[in-house]
Amino acid sequence: MDGARDPRSDETTEQAGKALAASGVAVRAAGADDVVAGVPPRWVALPETAEEIAAVLRVSEEHDLAVVPVGGGTKLHWGAPPSRCDVLLDTCCLNEVVEHEAGDLVVRAQAGLTVEALAEALAAKGQELALDVPVPGTTIGGLVATAIAGPRRFRYGTVRDLLIGITVVLADGTIAHAGGKVVKNVAGYDLGKLFTGSYGTLGVVADATFRLHPLPPSRTWAAASFARPVRSGPGGDASEEASAPEAVRLAGELHAALAAAAGSQAEPVAVELDWPDVTGPATVAVLVEGAASAERADAVRALLGPEARTVGERPGWWGRLPSAPPPSRDGARAETDAGRDEEPPAGRGETLLELRASPSRVAGALAAVHVTALETGTPAAVRGSAPAGVVHVALRADAGRTARFADALRARVEAADGRLVVLSAPPEAADGLDRWGRVGALALMRRVKERFDPGGRMSPGRFVGGI
Amino acid sequence: MSTLERLTARLGAALPPEAVITDPVRLRTYECDGLTYHRATPGVVVLPETAEQVAAVVRLCAEFGVPFVARGSGTGLSGGALPRTDGVLIVTSRMRRILEIDIAGRRAVVEPGVTNLAITEAVRDQGYYYAPDPSSQQICSIGGNVAENSGGAHCLKYGFTVNHVLALQVVTPDGEIVELSEQDAGYDLLGAFIGSEGTLGIATAITVRLSRAPEAVTTLLAAFTDIESGGQAVSAVIAAGVLPAAIEMMDALAIEAAEAAVHCGYPPGAGAVLVVELDGPRAEVERQFTAVERICRDTGAFEVRVAASAEERAAIWKGRKSAFAAVGRISPAYIVQDGVVPRTALPEVLAGIDRLQDEYGIRVANVFHAGDGNLHPLVLFDDSVPGEGERAEAASGRILDLCIEHGGSITGEHGVGVDKARYMPRMFTPDDLDTMQLVRCAFDPEGLSNPGKVFPTPRLCGEVPGVRKGVHPLVEAGLAEQF
């Protein structure tokens, strides 16, 4: 991002720094750990209340500073790099459960609280937020900003479906609330929906209120394995010509198993696919929870085939994003050999895609990933909630191959009315990568952005259409 | 020639024959929705058949600066479809096609005039249904459900319209047709649009999620001597970790009305009845039923009835579903409220409503979705007695104040509309309301789409200050990406 270097004079910068320091909010100089998708901020602000967030944002408006909010920083490398970044607004000091009325099954929590800390507080009362957040260390603010969800989205939906109230601070320092602390509420516009998945581009989330569920008395999984698409050939080498029909066969089998489980009246809460390498075997696993879970899981198991089994423990991969498989012999070897023995930090260096497709088109989407992986010589992993219409794809390759993979897969997926989003990519792969794909209402989204953040200072450039 | 007349002269070219109504007698048919004490004769009514026709009408409204209001079946209870005498009423009753049913994809695409129940009827044979079930589901339109984010008795377990709509085709207030889809990256405009009460545009095609029909459904009716015991049963059910599909409560006055109207045969002497419906896998429902029945008896139910068939279930629901209309049997007029309180505040709020009855000298019948704290107090009055209507109105407002004081909401499912707009400042600060209006300004800067609803005062949108026109300079210079 050399081109984005701030052209402002040192004097202007110094004034802005003084104003931030005078705001009464803890501010420190940014360091190497504070870089946002390759772009270093100048300052890190550490507000402790919504009012302090507002104070930081007012100074930022006065001095035309670009602000990127951050919680746990676990997904700070997601989204496009900001076009500029002066202040990293760290919500770590807003980490309290504001209100938890167990009898109402509702909790209000501050943005910087981690989902783990929240879960612990709720479990003490036998309750939970039924979102299996797939990235450990995620904060409430980060959860809302990225709208990530895990396996039980199949039953409970995602953040948007469980968020019932929100406090936000706008770019000009206005503190606004929407929704409330009752689940059933249609008074006024639902700003919570608008902020969910907005990647920090509309303002800063100060706290959020969620609908809760009782912790289920029991959980049982049913799981089945499916053989790899290529069984023949010396040494099992996968050639594109030989494996395409086999991949279609496997994708069809997976689709059938997923659909059967999803349509079961035993009512599983999650139906997941794990395909750690799309040239290898796959697993379908189903979670049944609540009263009579063992009996009901057994009913689902019967739908998954003769070799399926039920277990009381979650599969090791359950509720986590996929990891890119090791490089294949023919494909990405040259580029990645050097780093093979070192375990990279979780998720870093990888490209993570989110693929959305109608549950009726799962087979085609899965076959598309397989074909794209072979065609581009890039091994890929698939995991996710196919019957809920969402799976994630992980790969690790050089910039060119990554872009080719994303473009080719998106072309196939969009042709079938699906969507492909690049959630994260290594900085070196960021150039020339279309992250967002087709978006139906981009013009309206720009108009919303212009109203909420007319100066274009909130996480600028990180979102669709350069928003 | 007035502006509206000039606009009307051009409507014929945009619409099929017989689709423009200007006859004053026929216009009167559309003067109110389900909330009949707000009335206004629309300037002109149009009956478009396609999204393109809706868009053409809206573009004309934009060109002439004339307000427009969308209307489905007109069953709304907040005056959300109250027409404008100086505007166009766009009625979706001719847009009634089910465009696509995709069982494998668990979704259907329908036009806005399709009734809520028609979706379920179209897929029931295949073991699916459309979950949100407002009481008016036999006639209310899905387009109206989208505008109001309609709920229903079963939203305790299954959520609201917004949780069951996957995509919308929308005509924006400037007459463009856009797709809002949960699949797309970007802001959740789909979520923001649903429940915006027609103020952000008109939905012209709706993709709904279809849900798998439950394996078993059990409905029980428990009779208590007083409402407090019924309330304790509700709290105990929730505390036991049971999430019923519905928990409904009626007090003695509401029961009296229902008996008079539909002879529902609820246990005599009941001071309150509770209707609990459990659905899901048979094994789960059986265990939960045992728990719920025990809780009801432990908290003082003197009779528990269980529906063993669909007919018996319908009989139990009959009293509850007829309650609003039934009140007409015991009172010449009534106001229905839609406040919500946290479940734990129910006893206090009900006691507060009791006190208001004495204070204002009026009767209040309570019918409510107890599971989610959504009250429907029916404030009864005689409109032939001078001053009684005003007293009823004042008592209604005090009930909403009670809800707000206890951390609740002024509306759980009926919407704000024109009826409750004046209460919005009691629930939200000026900053909250201004922030919501930023969304309005993004969609509808001229304020032509259902003006006067939701917000007590319109916001003048104006130009966006300091907005860069065109691409960002860094993008122009090739220095930053902009996808």
UniProtKB/TrEMBL annotation, chain A:
The keyword Flavoprotein applies. The keyword Flavoprotein applies. Residues 36-215 form the FAD-binding PCMH-type domain. Residues 311-347 are annotated as: Disordered. Keywords: FAD, Flavoprotein. InterPro entries: FAD-bd_PCMH (IPR016166), FAD-bd_PCMH-like_sf (IPR036318), FAD-bd_PCMH_sub2 (IPR016169), FAD-linked_Oxase-like_C (IPR016164), Oxid_FAD_bind_N (IPR006094). It comes from the Bacteria. Residues 330-345 have a biased composition (Basic and acidic residues). This is Glycolate oxidase. It comes from Microbispora corallina. The gene is glcE.
UniProtKB/TrEMBL annotation, chain B:
The gene is glcD. It comes from Microbispora corallina. The keyword Flavoprotein applies. Keywords: FAD, Flavoprotein, Oxidoreductase. This is FAD-binding protein. The keyword Flavoprotein applies. PANTHER family: GLYCOLATE OXIDASE SUBUNIT GLCD (PTHR42934:SF1). Its cofactor is FAD. InterPro entries: FAD-bd_oxidored_4_C, FAD-bd_PCMH, FAD-bd_PCMH-like_sf, FAD-bd_PCMH_sub2, FAD-linked_Oxase-like_C, FAD-linked_OxidoTrans_Type4, Oxid_FAD_bind_N, Vanillyl_alc_oxidase_C-sub2.
